[in-house]
Amino acid sequence: MRYFITLSYDGTRFHGWQVQPNGISVQGELQRALSLLLRQNIQVTGAGRTDTGVHARMMVAHFDWDIDSSQFAVHSSLCTKDCELLLLDCQQLAYKLNRLLPRDIAVQRVEPVTGDMHARFSATVRTYHYFIHTEKSPFLRHYSCELHYPLDFRLMNQAAAMLLTYDDFGAFCKSHADVKTTLCHVTAAAWHQTSPSEWYFEISANRFLRNMVRAVVGTLIEVGRGRLSLDDFRRVVEGRRRTDAGESMPANALFLVKIEY
Predict the structure, then answer these.
(1) Active site residues
(2) How many C-beta atoms lie closer than 10 Å to residue 128's C-beta?
(3) What residues form DSSP beta bridges with 64?
(4) How many CA atoms lie within 13 A of 15 on its CB side?
(5) Of 18, 36, 81, 159, which residue is 20 to 30 A from 169 by alpha carbon distance?
(6) Which helix or strand (DSSP H or E) is residue 216 part of?
């Protein structure tokens, strides 16, 4: 039986989502907790791979789990028996996961899905937010990027709108990344103001390349500072060379906020 887990996490102390040989990861913590509770080696597959320090208000992962009726007594606190099939008590499992996982990971729900559902490949849209603020704030420093130069958000939004007209984003892909294609379908890209000194960039696409969002934001910042014109920005995208784009922005201000299926 396949199950989806919807969770959120503060990525500050993690070396990204994916299991790392010499670092703590969100995937590793989730697998450890599930394996302990279900008393077998559980592997989880996430909807994506957030980088070191990146947060998720919504991440989805799946795992497969089946046991025979002879094991019911061992798992009775986490199972229901229905028509000779053993099913997880999803509400109870979510509760116990939250008791076992560290405080910077929270499970919102566990739910059974059909076997053809895949956390990564069945996802149709992913949405990220990147936060910036332009006045010093002790309450934003961990989850927003502080900038102190003037930015032309009107021009930045004009440049962002161009992203919807392209499908190859090699210019924003981390150098030497192991990817088969740099094609992505971007469906939304815009800056939104939430206070006189706070903004966030929202971008949605069917898939993202490694480091793509932070590289896009860094290049849009160059437009906002007047260092790149709109024509320059277009040439960067069309040139598909990472060296032509702006610098990658800090990870702490980036959030994966929504995954759609």
Answers:
(1) 51
(2) 25
(3) 2
(4) 9
(5) 18
(6) helix 212-224
Distance CA 34, CA 55 (A): 21
Structure tokens at 130: 């990147």
Query: Which tokens hold the place of 94?
Result: 């979510």
Q: For the chain, count helices (H), then strands (E).
A: 5, 11
Cα(49)–Cα(26) distance, rounded to whole angstroms? 10
What is the C-alpha separation between 258 and 147, in angstroms, rounded?
26
Cβ contact 101:31 at 8 Å: no
Question: Which is nearest to 211 in space by CA: 82, 96, 5, 52?
Answer: 52
Joined together, the tokens standing for residue 79 give 């199972």
Nearest residue to 65 via CA among 82, 48, 41: 41
- Condensed to tens digits (0 to 9), the pLDDT of residues 90-128 reads 999 999 999 999 999 999 999 999 999 999 999 999 999
pTM for this entry: 0.92
Burial of 59 (0-12, 13-18, 19+ CB in 10 A): buried
